[in-house]
Write a structure and sequence with these properties.
Layout: E1 3-5, H1 9-17, E2 24-25, E3 34-40, E4 52-55, E5 70-71, E6 77-81, E7 92-95, E8 103-104, E9 119-120, E10 131-136, E11 138-139, H2 147-152, E12 163-170, E13 180-187, E14 203-207, H3 225-234, E15 242-246, H4 253-256, E16 262-263, E17 266-267, H5 270-288, E18 298-303, H6 305-316, E19 323-327, H7 334-343, E20 350-356, H8 367-388, E21 395-400, H9 407-421
Parallel strand pairs: 3-10, 14-15, 14-18, 18-19, 19-20, 20-21
Antiparallel strand pairs: 1-10, 2-9, 3-6, 4-7, 5-6, 8-11, 12-13, 13-15, 16-17
Helix pairs in contact: 3-9, 7-8
Length: 425
């Protein structure tokens, strides 16, 4: 599989003649963005059947209309990523509109998630975007194409440990107001036993619910919440609780999960999304399951933009969400978040901050940005603790050594976080 940076040899030779050394950086660190150029060797893509980018910046939506590649006169395809990713490593794949039509290797096997590699910015003009060239050998050909799976990529049999129920809800925010989606509700062992018919359980509401209990096609991993909680509850380390996974809305995820400010022309609608969670999601759960009420028994959690929502929900509505798991809080919109936490009067009575020690990536060139992310988590952790006058036993910062920005890292830190919030007394 080829992943080449399109830099002219002639320019490189000229630069070398002047004694200039290459300056290799990750494209994700460039505020001007970059351009992906794709050669479709399969010949399957056309104007009526275009190529889509599914990635860690769009919730791995395989049919995101905002991530369609455009055709070029040289028969190749391209997409311009003009947003500042603030150094967070990008993982991605290409599809023809669904995970049943994802790209494959020349041998017909699923490919690992792609990364961008390094580019030489010494050959670029100020503000010029580097070109990254990629070749796709072939795409998967589905036996029977399901339009529902093609559009949403999530409605299929789940491979989970324990009991997960689906609850359909309507609405959302950021463009998803007229949509419907299924909540994924994990119930602890024994929930449906006759002996527990009157028992009520604490609850945690988690964003990006698609990736909590099962691994979606094309996504790096899952949170493994079902396996982790099953073990911790059996060992008597965590009290039995209910987990409500709130799936993101696909192409509207960025707007829906951005509660503070706007970014690159996308107006954040996270406040409306939180109102929807409180007015629509929680009443449905309260009516269908035996959940304990009150902030002492209700938590909220998420990672990345989902972590932004967990931070927002637990500080604007601490009377509802008394506890929070705030993972990999992004630095996009950093100043509005700083202003918010320095002024907020509401703080959850117990919370966990999580961040990867290699959040941006594991390359030595990422070291400085990785340190900035850890410092950011420290700043938020300490500021919230001061605002809430919390003791050291009421808040915790978990920095995962070598952990990057993905589901594997959030899974690795989840056990420690949930045991901190819901220990067996």
């Amino acid at each position: 599989m080829r992943l080449l940076v399109a830099v002219s040899c002639l320019v490189g030779c000229v630069m070398s003649s002047f004694g200039l050394e290459p300056e290799m950086v990750r494209p994700e660190t460039l505020p001007q963005g970059f351009v992906l150029i794709v050669k479709d060797s399969s010949g399957m893509a056309n104007k009526d059947n275009p190529i889509y980018l599914a990635s860690s910046i769009n919730g791995w939506n395989p049919s995101d209309e905002e991530m369609i590649l455009s055709g070029r006169s040289d028969t190749r395809w391209q997409i311009v990523i003009d947003r500042d990713l603030h150094g967070v490593g990008l993982e991605f794949k290409f599809t023809l509109g669904g995970w049943d039509r994802e790209e494959l290797t020349a041998d017909g096997e699923s490919i690992p998630n792609r990364n961008l590699g390094l580019v030489d910015i010494s050959v670029l003009k100020d503000g010029e975007r580097p070109l990254v060239e990629i070749e796709i050998p072939q795409f998967k050909i589905p036996v029977a194409l399901s339009e529902e799976v093609r559009e949403k990529g999530i409605y299929r049999a789940l491979d989970v440990t324990g009991n997960v129920k689906r609850v359909e809800v309507r609405g959302g925010a950021g463009g998803a107001e007229a949509s419907t989606r299924d909540l994924f509700v994990w119930l602890p062992e024994g929930y449906e036993d006759e002996a527990n018919i009157d028992r009520q359980y604490p609850v945690i509401y988690m964003f990006d619910g698609q990736n909590l209990f099962d691994q979606l096609p094309g996504v790096p991993g899952e949170w493994n919440i079902d396996e982790t909680l099953t073990s911790l509850i059996e060992e008597g380390r965590v009290e039995p609780l209910i987990v409500v996974g709130i799936p993101h809305s696909g192409k509207f995820r960025t707007a829906e999960y951005m509660p503070l400010g706007s970014y690159k022309g996308i107006k954040g609608d996270g406040a409306a999304c939180m109102d929807w969670v409180i007015a629509e999601v929680m009443p449905r759960i309260n009516g269908a399951f035996r959940v304990k009420h009150g902030r002492e028994s209700t938590a909220i959690g998420g990672a990345s933009l989902g972590g932004s929502m967990a931070l927002y929900g637990s500080t604007v509505h601490p009377d509802i969400f008394g506890m929070a798991i705030i993972e990999s809080l992004p630095m996009i919109g950093q100043k509005p978040t700083q202003r918010h936490i320095k002024k907020t009067k509401g703080v959850p009575f117990k919370f966990v901050m999580g961040m990867g020690g290699s959040e941006v990536g594991t390359d030595p060139a990422d070291s400085e940005r990785n340190q900035q992310y850890v410092q950011w988590a420290n700043e938020v952790n300490n500021t919230l603790a001061r605002r809430g006058k919390l003791s050291k036993d009421d808040h915790k910062l978990i920095v995962g050594e070598g952990h990057v920005h993905n589901e594997h890292a959030w899974s690795a830190r989840f056990g420690e976080a949930i045991e901190f919030l819901f220990p067996v007394n």
